Structure formats: structure tokens, C-alpha cells
Amino acid sequence: MINTESPKEIIHHSSVSPALKSIADKVFNGERITFDEGVTLYKEGSLSFLGTLANFVREKKSGDKVFFNRNFHVEPTNICVYSCAFCSYSRLIKQREQGWELSIDQILDIIKKYDGQPVTEVHITGGVVPKQDFAYYTELFRRIKQHRPDLHIKALTPVEYHYIFKKAKMTYEEGMKAMMEAGLDSMPGGGAEIFDKDIRDKIAGGKCSAEEWLEIHEVWHKLGRHSNATMLYGHIETFEHRIDHMERLRQLQDKTNGFNAFIPLKFRNKENQMSDVPEVSVIEDLRNYAVARIYLDNFPHIKAYWAMIGRNTAQLALNFGADDLDGTIDDTTKIYSMAGAEEQSPKLTTQQLVELIKGVGKRPVERDTLYGIVKDYSETTFTNK
Ligand code: V47
Ligand code: SF4
Question: pTM of the entire structure?
């Protein structure tokens, strides 16, 4: 028999605790939940309870639409002055021969491979090295824009910017304005890891602090530009640390409204200094997407980054609050394959992405980086099967 009850009725007729029922009422009434209520969701919410609530929020924000884009990544180097314990990808400067460092010309050659292809975004990020400094990146952005003005440059995180501006003796305001003038369009969400100082010092010591990460995003938003935010979860952090992370993002978003998407990144444990820390289950991944969707009431989108969790879990996440799958990627990132993700050559065609989305009864919509609609694929049928 088909259950025709509304989400509200389903929860009220269930045997969940009064505390969870009261949180559910707030969510159904569009009220913000508190820090403690967020922690209660993590500690006590069952998968089905969290899924019902997150789906309600998701539908209110995006209806049945699921977004994706056509993008590719450029990783200018995997050499890094830092050595984050969770990172499987970077090599220290003294291990330079095991890594790569691309010149501006080499990056332009990669960009040119996409000439004539309908990609809308290049996502640029990688390690931090002294050579790839202010002059290097401003010239890189300028040359990409000279070659292909309509290609959206989503590049670098506060980890790189903090290092680059310090070396160039510039304030964040001066630096971000210069990057914008050189052609930077938006900022990806990386480098956030977990904001709590103790945990951050343990897993990502030495790189920009939580406060610096948030400040650079704030400066960027005040220039009228947008960015994303991530959270690395499922390692040595607690549920309180996750809510603390989201609380700081929620507060900044209240101030600037500059974030587009929140992207939970599952810790993968292959070949890094934290390989002894077990990975969390898929159930925990789905619960985490759901709590994020419920807690971050002012974030328009929650992204399930399929290259990191695999296409099957990403598809499931669409019923637990996520409304975005990132993009085609075209096998151009190594960050996750080197850390043990299921997707060893992350690449999906538009057709495959559309079919993943239709497979869970949702409406596939190609977007640009800022969520402008490029094409609605709900009526499209592909003939080259
Ligand atoms: O900051 C590195 C993470 C991030 C591991 O904004 C790891 O659209 C898990 O931020 N296990 C970079 N995570 C990637 C990133 C991103 C990806 C896709 C889309 C967007 C966006 C941003 O990758 C790093 C770090 O948090 N990471 N190693 C690992 N072993
Ligand atoms: Fe360097 Fe980023 Fe890896 Fe940390 S996560 S070691 S900053 S490349």
C-alpha cells in the first residue's frame, strides 16, 4: 500500500522521542534549529527520520531539480609546503621528483584541449609552493581569460591565498581584489577541513586557521563574488565539532549570503598519515548529508561530490538533502583516487549524470557555476545507447 501521509504526519505517527519531534516541528515551520538540536540530530536521529526531514527542506529549496555542471580540474602541483595528515596526494618539496609542477604554458595546453567543448568551468587547486606565487596565478588567470573569456575560473582556496598574500605582503582585501581583476570568478570550498582548533592543529597544522579561512571568504563575498564551503568529516572529530563547523559557516552566510553550496567531504584513508583511522559507513555519510541540509538553512545547495563518495552513494544522497552532483570532471583530479575513493578515473558523461539523476526520479538540470540554468534535461532522451 502506498503511504500517502505527509512528512509531518509520518514523523508524528512514528515512535521518535519528544525531543526529535520538537526539532521536526521547527523544521516544518521553517524555524532555525540550535547548536544543541543539531548535535541531538547526529546523536539520536535515525536514517529514515533524518532523510524525511532533509528531503522536506531540499524540496522546499530546489523542488525535484538536481544540478550538475560540465567542468574539468587543473591541479598545478601536488608538491606542498604543508603536510596535512589526511592528505594522500601531496609530496613535500624534498620529494619533488615524485610530484608535478606545471608551468603556465602547460596549464594553457590543458585548457586548450577543451576548445570547442561545452564545458563551463575550470576548477583549479592543488598544493602550495613558493614558485606558484601572486605573479604566477594572476598571469595564469589573465591568460586563461584571454584564451577563453567565457570559461568560469573557480580557483584556489584560502590555504593558497593566505600563503600567497603573506609572501607578497598584501592584505586579503588587496590580494582578492587583484585576483578578481586578473579573472578569478569564484572560489571553491576546499581547505576548510574542520574549524575546531585542536582537531585542525592535529590534522592540518600550519596552514591557514579557521578564522583566516572564514575571513578570506568574507572579503571575497564583500567584493560581490561567490564561493563554496566544505567540511572534512569522518576522522577524529566529534559530532559537536561538525556542528561547530556548520555554525560558523551559517553565521558568515547570514552576514554575506555569498556561499552557493556546502560540500561534505568524507575522509578517505588510503596511503596517508591517518590510514589507521577507519572510514565511516555509507549510512553515516547519508546521515551527515541530511544533518547538513537541515542545519544550514541559509545555504541554497548541498553538493554530493560523486568523485569522492562514488556515484552510487552520490545517487543515494539525493534523497538525503543533496541537490547537486558537481560535474563531469573528465578524469582531471587525483585528490580522491589517490586517497582510495571508489572512482579511480573520475569521469562521467552528461548522459551518465542525467541517467543517475533520473534513476532516483529527479529532474536533471545542467547549471553554470553560479547556478544559472544551462539546460533542463527532464525531457531529453539520448539515442546513442
Ligand atoms: O581541502 C584531501 C579534501 C579538499 C582528502 O568547491 C580529502 O565545488 C577526504 O575542496 N579524504 C579539496 N578529503 C577538494 C575540494 C572540492 C572538491 C569538489 C568540489 C569543490 C567545490 C571543492 O579535498 C581539501 C580536503 O578537504 N581532501 N585529502 C582525503 N584523504
Ligand atoms: Fe597541501 Fe592541501 Fe594536501 Fe594540506 S590538503 S598537504 S595544504 S595539498
Answer: 0.95
